[in-house]
Design brief:
The protein is mostly helical. It contains 12 helices and 2 strands; from the N terminus they run ααββαααααααααα. The chain has 3 domains: 65 residues, Multidrug-efflux Transporter Regulator, Chain: A, Domain 2 (Orthogonal Bundle), CATH 1.10.1660; 49 residues; 127 residues, Globin-like (Orthogonal Bundle), CATH 1.10.490. The longest helix has 35 residues.
Length: 253
């Protein structure tokens, strides 16, 4: 690896794309503790860069900062082994995404060319059970999970189609607001955040303020949520999550 010279916090921000404010926060909570000059300025090294990469990778997998800190501070943590395992996981995700793209192309071909497509092909790459198991493992014992399961168990395909249309309409309106330069703290953005909360209340479960804020955190930290929301407009996941925090007085730090 090419040797990285000591970097200021600005250098590290430019290198990684992480904001100076976030780097300060990571330093303050001990997640990425910078070295200090005699004058008290933060200094980062190659070791810090590798640790920051681990933070970003694990965050993209949906881990909260406290869990990431525990992982990285574990005496048995092996950076090389972790990178190899993470690479395998990302490659698997990429394979699934590629399969999904092929399946979507098949569906488009079926609709536009009236080709004789094997309908099984349009479901390749989709494995809902993976997400269902993950959701149950994480939240199976919670009241909102039970309420959601009970509320949705009798939904018809028409109900699910209506839910999807309603949700897409919210994201499209939010994307339009973002493209128009509306700030996430603007009243328009706050109303969109509230509109999505009502959507969840109506169709799935009664949200609490803290629960909705936690969902917003997932929108901008979990790669799957980011991909699903940002398909409407790049940066939309972060924008709407910021709107939720502004609406309910939460901070992401």
């Amino acid at each position: 690896m090419k040797k990285i010279e000591d970097m200021t916090v600005k250098d590290m921000a430019l290198l990684s794309g992480v904001t100076i404010r976030t780097l300060h926060h990571y330093d303050d909570i001990g997640l990425l503790k910078a070295n200090r000059t005699e004058s008290g300025y933060r200094i980062y090294t190659e070791k810090h860069a590798l640790r920051l990469q681990q933070i970003l990778i694990q965050k993209s997998f949906g881990l909260p900062l406290e869990d990431i800190a525990r992982n990285l501070d574990d005496a048995n943590f092996d950076t090389l082994l972790s990178l190899q395992q993470q690479r395998n996981a990302v490659v698997k995700q990429a394979e699934n995404i590629n399969a999904m793209v092929e399946a979507i192309d098949m569906a488009i071909k079926q609709l536009t060319d009236e080709a004789n497509i094997d309908l099984r092909d349009i479901f390749k790459g989709f494995d809902p059970s993976l997400y269902e198991e993950e959701v149950e493992q994480k939240w199976g014992g919670t009241e909102f999970y039970k309420e959601s399961q009970n509320k949705t168990k009798d939904y018809t395909p028409q109900d699910w189609e209506r839910i999807k249309r309603e949700e897409n309409a919210i994201w499209q309106d939010a994307a339009h607001a973002l493209r128009s330069g509306v700030a996430p703290t603007n009243q328009v953005a706050l109303e969109l955040a509230q509109r999505y909360r009502k959507h969840i209340d109506n169709w799935f479960y009664t949200t609490s303020v803290s629960g909705f804020a936690a969902l917003a955190e997932l929108w901008e930290s979990d790669a799957r949520f980011i991909a699903n929301i940002d398909k409407f407009e790049t940066g939309l996941a972060k924008w709407i999550a910021t709107a939720v925090r502004a609406n309910y007085g939460y901070s992401n730090e």
